[in-house]
Amino acid sequence: MEPSLFDIDTGTDMISSELSRVIELFQLPFMQRALISGVLTGLMGGMLGSFTILRQLSFFSDALGHSALLGISLGLLLGISPTGVLLPFSVVFALLVTYLLEKTQLWTDALLNVIYSSSLAIAVITLSFVGQYKGGLNNLLFGDILAVRQADLVFSIVLLVICTVFIGLTLRTQMLISLHEPLAIARGISVSAHRTAFIVLLSLVVGISIKAIGVLLISAFVVIPSCAARLLSSTFTQYVVLSATIGAVSAVLGMLLSAWFNLPSGPSIVVTQLTIFLGTIAFPRRRLRAS
Amino acid sequence: MLTVENLTVHRDLYPAVQDVSFSLEAGMDAAIVGPNGAGKSTLVQAILGILPRQAGEVFVLGEPLGRSGQLPGQVRQQIAYLPQNFLFDRRIPITVEELVGLGWEPLGLRWPWTDSRQRFLAIQQALARVDGAYLRSYPISALSGGELKRVLLAYCLVRPRRLLILDEALAGLDIRSESEFYQLLCQLKREQGWAILQISHDLDMVRRHCDRVLCLNRTLRCQGVPEVALAPDSLAAAYGTEFVRYRHRH
User: Which fold has domain A34-209+218-282?
Assistant: First the structure.
């Protein structure tokens, strides 16, 4: 019996020393900023994501993420910092996409593919003119949540307030637009103005989060929590609130996971989202069945 | 109630509705009949401002419909529209209560909890009126065709309206549910004093229930009381002579 008691003792010791290491880590300002940034992105991504997937715009955040490389490379060519370029670029991209969607009447996913693969091509060509780019393409692709600055946080908080107020004040209008556009128009809702406002907001959320999460993973924050929330919810309001909550909770758990096992932060959050999503599939879906 | 003057609507470059004029008085139940592709849905969608029009004027409750479909909010509140085959994504998580609540909502900038008590009562009454109180917390994905139509009717009557525009409201129902739905609709029409403009394929039903018929085949071929507008000559003008001979044999 002695050896096993000894084992348990060492095990407990190891866990408590790991725990104190994680606690110490979260006392560092950059970790705290990373945690807050993750929660803010989770909340905004989840909230807007719930409408994004219903309107079949899931691919939009992915396309915007990829196209953002073009913005960043143009910024490098002109000597402007990536942060200065990202937000204006995202808004212009959003307006261009809505314009092209309405003008061409093509399928959303096909059109988004045209735009993002071509912007990626132009971005790579532009980067070849910049020459040696030492800023770290890797950081742009996968993000660096530990490098989040105070100013980024302030902007994220302002954006979260704007998103919450916008969705709060127009919740029922957004519901009707997601459910049936002609019905919404018959009620006098300017669907195209609402669509544009929503896409601009979504693109700002993606744009502000690219630095922390990276262009390749940002769409996970928009899509995975909403899909998980959809599987759990029966009412629309519950669905939107749950989606934002799952976004925030997975950011906290993911950061802990990353600190505990010393893993990259952004991917750890996405893996947590995935775990929650898989968990919801196992949850009994009594509300989804058609009688 | 509703006045349409020389309305022309194009779909792609072709006129789908041309030079149509008619008017609808309070309490009237008018049916638009005509073959497939005659422009019936196009006509009602242009009246509601869903489709842009190329020429003509539309007045709803005395107010002119703007070029891009604008109408004062007050007027919009008093119209209800049920689209043809209300096709929606069944994966959208929304309950019957939430859907009917959307009909009650003024839809401006409002917090979701504003007037929640009034909303709750209005939803309850509207659902009870269509014998659908038990459906309140159902997800709409779980409704049968007949239940969905009743819920949509509750969406219309959750707030007092003056004009109801139905685009083949009965499509997809079996004969029994169809006649039940019609009885309910007629009852509500009398109670609420609705004027109704509806698209229908069921000429017998139109004969029984409507007091005005518009025969449409791109242009308005004839209009009047059912006895006149559904007479063989008028039908031949809208549907073609083959159709009339067919109806007379059966």
Answer: ABC transporter involved in vitamin B12 uptake, BtuC (1.10.3470)
